[in-house]
Amino acid sequence: MHISDGILEPQWIIFWWIVAMAFVAVGVVQIRQRVKDNPQYLPALALMGAAVLVISVWHIPVPVTGSSSHPCGTPMAAIIVGPFPVAVISAIALFFQTFVGHGGLTTIGANDFSMGIVGAFTGYGTWVALRNLRASIFWAAALAGFIGDVFTYVTSAFQLAISLHPESLLHYWGIFLLGYVPTQLPIAIMEFVFTGLVVRYVAEVRPEMMRLHKPAVASTIK
Amino acid sequence: MTKEITINKIKGIIMDKFEKTALLACAVMSAVILIFFYAGTALGHHDLSGSDDKVTETAADVGNKTPHSSLYELDQNGEYVGFASIGVAGGFFVGYIWNMTFGEESTKGVGTRG
């Protein structure tokens, strides 16, 4: 989903920047408040930031499609540190990834929106919904990882289609989705597995980390 | 007490649980990537470039655009080095922060880590 520079129309570059920075602003406010309330929040946030940075450059080859892609890591991060702060750490990760030719400088807003916002919020929403339905930690987190990953790329395809051919939005959205989905589905399955395993590990070894940002949800942890 | 600390120190120097788990994860991920890469080349796909790049090419054709970098252009080897560098830097960071989040408070500073 890393859209390069030179692809999006200028008005859409500005639009996605404005939307992303709104979420980043809320994320910064939340981070400051949570660090004040609980000093343990900062190392957890740093850990998730580093994890998102590494996971989103981790290209895994998919033999049957002849290409490679990467997971996102943002659903996992959203479950641990909350969705708004993930917009912040994703923006930082995307900035550093620009220096290795992954993504673009002008498209940080768009890429942050797809990966750091849509990926995080859809993943987090799936986690909350499933935990409220008494799903186990593994399954709730795993499905959150899968859904967040898929929606990240659905959003990227939408961003390309609406910028390049808004008059035939659905048609080109489908075309770009066809470019992403065959390679991304196996990667989303991997994200399903590692998100479930990591969140379950955190809940078992450091259950207090699951309460860093959402005591009400974490209280349902068995 | 002294014997316990010494045993813990020795265990920490040899390899603690986190290091064993991290090395195992590294070995498994490397094996998965190598197997998938071999399978891909065996199926005739000698490129295996990123789907992001392929969709970018399609988008550039469809929209009559020219993708470029606002900073500098890296050749393929440069990208390999860059991506590996990010992975290494991120990995060191994760390892350093890990102790602060998962390390056992009671054994910090005597060689055993969580």
Draw up the topology in text.
The complex is a heterodimer of chains A (222) and B (114).
Chain A: H1 10-37, H2 41-55, E1 60-62, E2 67-69, H3 74-81, H4 83-98, H5 108-132, H6 137-164, H7 169-205, H8 215-218
Antiparallel strand pairs in A: 1-2
Helix pairs in contact in A: 1-4, 1-5, 2-3, 2-4, 3-4, 3-5, 3-6, 3-7, 4-5, 5-6, 6-7
Chain B: H1 2-14, H2 17-42, H3 51-63, H4 76-102
Task: Provide an overview of this structure.
The complex is a heterodimer of chains A (222) and B (114). Chain A has 222 residues and is mostly helical. Chain A has one domain (10-218): Arp2/3 complex 21 kDa subunit ARPC3 (Orthogonal Bundle), CATH 1.10.1760. Chain A is 73% helix and 3% strand. Chain A is built from 8 helices and 2 strands, in the order ααββαααααα. Chain A has helices at residues 10-37, 41-55, 74-81, 83-98, 108-132, 137-164, 169-205, 215-218, and strands spanning 60-62, 67-69. In chain A, strands 1-2 form a two-stranded antiparallel ribbon. The radius of gyration of chain A is 17 Å and the shape is globular. Chain A starts with 9 loop residues before the first helix and ends with a helix. Residues 215-222 of chain A have low confidence and may be disordered. Chain B has one domain (2-107). In chain B, 69% of the residues lie in helices and 0% in strands. Chain B contains 4 helices and no strands. Chain B has helices spanning 2-14, 17-42, 51-63, 76-102. The two termini of chain B are 20 Å apart. Classes of the chains: A mainly alpha (222), B mainly alpha (114).
